[in-house]
Each structure stands twice: as structure tokens, then as C-alpha cells.
Design brief:
CATH topology of the largest domain: D-amino Acid Aminotransferase, Chain A, domain 1
GO biological process, one term: 'de novo' IMP biosynthetic process
Pfam families: SAICAR_synt
Number of helices: 7
Structural class: alpha+beta
Oligomer: single chain
CATH architecture of the largest domain: 2-Layer Sandwich
Family: Belongs to the SAICAR synthetase family.
Shape: globular
Helix content: 25-40%
Radius of gyration: 17 Å
CATH class of the largest domain: Alpha Beta
Strand content: 25-35%
Catalytic activity: 5-amino-1-(5-phospho-D-ribosyl)imidazole-4-carboxylate + L-aspartate + ATP = (2S)-2-[5-amino-1-(5-phospho-beta-D-ribosyl)imidazole-4-carboxamido]succinate + ADP + phosphate + 2 H(+)
InterPro entries: SAICAR_synt/ADE2_N (IPR028923), SAICAR_synt_PurC (IPR033934), SAICAR_synthetase (IPR050089), SAICAR_synthetase_CS (IPR018236)
């Protein structure tokens, strides 16, 4: 069984169609310059990802998700990952404010703003244009149109979900891949590591906590609250010790 390891996950390739994605407790910031271990982070991110992928599937959005082991792994379809990250911004925050300081912090963006980044840690995932994606053959025009359509629809669905929990979805990162038949599916994870979400007091329930404080205990507290708000019971943490 082949194993691929990243900063926050291990991917075990079972066969030509199935992978097992294990969520680690590692947490990083500043492009990996800051590293720590946050106990049970992987368990909660796996649970949140499984919950949100299931929710998106129930709303007609196709993803790579197949099943959840109840602990820190999800079972997913094997895809050829597209090296393009899509960030959907509902409010101005983070790198957008640094790039264009004309925005006001948490300025509402309606309609949402889409950003594309070339997925390559060695060059810090640079911002790219839709034309770059097409001209370099990362995606064909119709494929990029699909990615944009799915990203906006998934953002709308999740924004409504979080609103129903009295939470605000600030922004979210999506990744995509192609299956054996060339179908484009939502992939990777959807968790506190890949989105920013605020409670009614503007407290972060996401990785921004660690970026700002480097405090793993505050991060785990925020991730537990995110699970609680979504109605995800974390019995598996106690069960597995």
C-alpha cells in the first residue's frame, strides 16, 4: 500500500479507486515555519470533514467522500489532484487585506470573491489568474467553469449551514481532483484548517487561532466548539484515548 504524507494528513492508497486519508495532529503556520502537535486535532478535523462532505453530497454537490471510520480517517475516491487551490471569500480578511489594503477588515464581499492559487509549497502557492490556468493547461475552459460553479455553490450551501448555527463563514479553501472518468470532484478536506468561521462575538473557531497565538490549547478549544456548533459528538476522542 502506497503512502503519501503531507503537513496535516497521510494518504494510504488501497487500490486504483480508493484511498484512506488519515488526519494528523500536526499543526503548522507561516508556510510550515511554525509547527506543533495539537492532541485530537486530527480526530476533530476528520469528523468535521466527514460531516461537511456528507452535507454537501446531500445538497447535490459531488465530492470524493465515501465513508468515515468514526475516528481520524475518511475513505475517499482516488483522484488525480488538480494543483489549483480555490479560495472563496465572503468577507475581506487575511492575505487579501495585505495584498489590497483598500479593503476594510471583514468588509462583506457580495458576490463572493474567488481567488486561484497554484498549489506548490516551494513557491508559496502563488496567486494566479484564470487565464494562467487555461494557458498552462492546468484545466480546460469548461473544466475551470465547473470548478468555479461548484466552488460558489458549495460556498453558498456551507454559508447557509453556518448561518443556521449563528456562525459566519468568512472564507474557505477548496481543492479538486479528477476521477478515472475525468469527472471533477471536490476533494481534500473541509475543516477548521481550510476555512475561517466566526462566532457571534467574532471569535475564530478555526486555524486562525493558532496563526495568531501559536497556542495549541486555544486551537483545540476552538475546534471543539466548532464541532459542538455543528452538532458533532466527539465520543471517539474518549473512546480512543
Amino acid at each position: 500500500m502506497s503512502v503519501y504524507e503531507g503537513k496535516s494528513k497521510r494518504v494510504y492508497v488501497k487500490d486504483d479507486y480508493i484511498v484512506v486519508i488519515e488526519f494528523k495532529d500536526d499543526v503548522t503556520a507561516m508556510d510550515g515555519a511554525v509547527k506543533a502537535i495539537a492532541k485530537d486535532k486530527g480526530v476533530m478535523n476528520a469528523a468535521v470533514s466527514a460531516y461537511l462532505f456528507n452535507y454537501l453530497e446531500s445538497r447535490g454537490i459531488k465530492t470524493h467522500f465515501i465513508d468515515y471510520d468514526g475516528y481520524r480517517c475518511i475513505i475517499a475516491k482516488k483522484l488525480g489532484i488538480i494543483p489549483v487551490e480555490v479560495i472563496v471569500r465572503n468577507y475581506a480578511y487575511g492575505s487579501l487585506l495585505k495584498r489590497i489594503p483598500l479593503y476594510k477588515p471583514l468588509q462583506k464581499l457580495d458576490p463572493p470573491l474567488l481567488e486561484f492559487h497554484f498549489k506548490d509549497d516551494s513557491i508559496h502557492d502563488p496567486l494566479i489568474l484564470p487565464e494562467d490556468i487555461i494557458y498552462t493547461n492546468l484545466l480546460k475552459k469548461n473544466e475551470l467553469d465547473t470548478v468555479i460553479e461548484v466552488s460558489l455553490k458549495a460556498n453558498d450551501v456551507l454559508r447557509e449551514l453556518f448561518t443556521s448555527k449563528n456562525l459566519v463563514l468568512v472564507d474557505i479553501k477548496f481543492e479538486f481532483g479528477k476521477d478515472k472518468n475525468g469527472n471533477i470532484l471536490l476533494a481534500d478536506e473541509i475543516s477548521g484548517d481550510t476555512l475561517r468561521v466566526l462566532d457571534e462575538n467574532r471569535n475564530h473557531l478555526d486555524k486562525e487561532i493558532f496563526r495568531k497565538t501559536k497556542d495549541v490549547e486555544l486551537l483545540i478549544k476552538a475546534y471543539r466548539e466548532l464541532c459542538n456548533r455543528l452538532g458533532i459528538e466527539m465520543k471517539s476522542i474518549a473512546a480512543y484515548g
